[in-house]
Every structure is written in C-alpha cells, then in structure tokens.
Design goal:
- This protein has one domain: Roll (Pnp Oxidase, Chain A).
- The protein is about 20% helix and about 50% strand.
- It contains three helices and seven strands.
- Strands 1-2-3-6-5-4 form a six-stranded antiparallel barrel.
Length: about 120
C-alpha cells in the first residue's frame, strides 16, 4: 500500500502531538518501519513531544511517498525495554542513543491528495 510506503524505515515524517490542555507540537522524526503492524519511532532527542504523548497518546503523522501525501492518526505506547525497544536501537544510529521506543497503533489513514479516508 502506498500509505505504508510513506512510513517505511529511514523515511522522514512529521509527528504532531498535543498536550493534555491542547497545546500542539510538531517535529520531524525518522521512521524505523513497521513491527507487528505498528509504526516504530526511536525517541532519541524528543522533549516536548515526549512529554505530550505521556499525557495524551493521540498523535497525527504526515507521510509522503513520491508526490502522495497521507495524514495518519494513531495511539502511542512507549517502551523502554523489550522487543520494540530492541528493534528501535537496532534500526537507529548509535548517537544520540535511543531513550525509548515510540510505537504507534494506526487508527486512521487519510489520503490528502484524494481528500478521502482510506483506512
């Protein structure tokens, strides 16, 4: 699927979060690809975004794939050990070190070019 290609390992994606009281934050992150159907991102330097997801796990991602644009919404789980953390470490560069694995369970995909929900 094209939307999944937009999130493959090493792709730059926009991760948008919101604090519990509605203050938004967006950053560029590097995808670590999919594990068990969930998107994996390594938390190496997140500060505001990480604080936000600890209080509000709902996130939005913008992914692109050769002139195709997708808005993906999901719910985050954070892991500091285990298979997701180990995979994030393996798929990331050693510097800066991985602090935690951000795992996103994708709930909705919207094709921004076609203007329609596709998942």
């Amino acid at each position: 699927m094209a939307w999944q290609d937009s999130l493959q390992q090493r792709r730059q994606i926009v991760l948008a979060t919101s604090s519990k009281d509605g203050h938004p934050n967006a950053i560029i992150v590097i995808s670590c690809g999919f594990i068990d159907g969930k998107l994996l991102i390594a938390n190496c330097q997140m500060k505001s975004s990480f604080e936000n997801i600890q209080k509000n796990p709902n996130v939005c991602i913008i992914g692109t794939n050769v002139k195709e644009y997708y808005r993906i919404k999901g719910v985050v789980s954070v892991f500091s050990s285990g298979k997701f953390f180990d995979a994030a470490v393996k798929k990331s560069s050693p510097n800066p070190p991985v602090k935690s694995a951000i795992v996103i369970d994708i709930k909705e995909v919207f094709d921004l070019d076609k203007g329609e929900k596709i998942l």
